[in-house]
Amino acid sequence: MINPAVDELAEQVGVKHACALLGRLRGSHYRAKKPPAHGPAPKRPTPPNALTPAEQAQVLAVLTSERFCDKSVSQAWATLLDEGTYLCSMSTMHRILRRNDAAGERRRQAVHPAKKKPELLATKSGQVWSWDITKLRGPGRGVWFQLYVVLDIFSRYVVAWTVQACEDSQIAKTMLEEAFGLHGIPDAVHADRGTSMTSKPVAQLLLDLGVDRSHSRPRVSNDNPYSESAFKTLKYAPVFPDVFGSLADARTFCEAFFTYYNHEHRHSGIGLHTPASVHFGTAAEISAMRLT
C-alpha cells in the first residue's frame, strides 16, 4: 500500500508535499486512512426547538383548513403573522405538508387534455388538402423567400403554390381562395401550427366555406408528412440551387419544378404514377396498360 509510504514521508515534509511527491491524491489518502462506516446513517438528533407532535398537528390543521387550503404556504404564513400569530417558519410548514402528502400546488390548475394525433384519410381527389410554407435562400445573408405550397393528399397533386418575400396570412388566404376557385372546395385542409396556418383570415375563410380545419400537434413535425415529403423532393432534387438570385428566379424555378412534379414525377406513394394521372383519374387505365 502507498499509504504507509506517504505517512513515513509526511513526518519529514508534511502530508501535502508527501502526496505531491508520491503522486497520491490527498483526498484518497485521507479516505483510505478512515474508510466510511457501512450500514445505516446515524439518526439525526431532534433539535431542542422542534415542534411537538401536537404542535405539528395544529400547523397541519391550520394549513388544510377551509381558510387556507387554497392558499400558498407563504400567503398563509404572512396572513397569520399580520394577525399576530406565529406558528413556525415557512420551511417547517413545507416539511409538515410533505410529511403528510399535502404538498404541491394548492391552487386550481388548468387541465389540458392530450392533443389527438390527426388522421388524414382521403378516398378520392379533392377531399383533403395539406399545405405548408418553407424557406428558400435568397441572394444575401439573412435574405429568405417564402414558398407556400398546397397539395391534394390523395393524388399528391400541387393545387396551388406561390413564392413571396415574406410570410403573411393575407397571402395565404388569397392563395387558398384562388385554389378553391380552380379545383373546388375540399372537405378538410390540414396544416401545422405556424402563424399563417392558425391566423384569423385563413381560419375565417375555411369557416365561411364549411371546410374542416386540421392542425398538427404542437412541436410534432411529422404530423404533416405530405407537405414535408413534397418539400424534401424539391430540395433534394439535383437541379435545386443553393441560392436564388432574386424573387423572380425563385418563381421561375418553382414554375418549372412543380410542372415537372405534377406531370412527370413518378411518386412512390401513389404506385409510381404521376400526381396529375391520379388527380384527373387516368391512373387506373395506366395501371391496366402496365399489366399488358
From TrEMBL:
**Where are the compositionally biased (Pro residues) regions?**
37-50
**Out of the domains of life, which is the source?**
Bacteria
Q: GO MF annotations for this entry?
A: nucleic acid binding
Cross-referenced InterPro entries: Integrase_cat-core, RNaseH-like_sf, RNaseH_sf, Transpos_IS3, Transposase_IS3/IS150/IS904
**A single Pfam family, by name?**
rve
Q: Which SUPFAM superfamilies match?
A: Ribonuclease H-like
Region Disordered, residue ranges: 30-51
Recorded protein name is: Transposase
Organism annotation = Nostocoides australiense Ben110
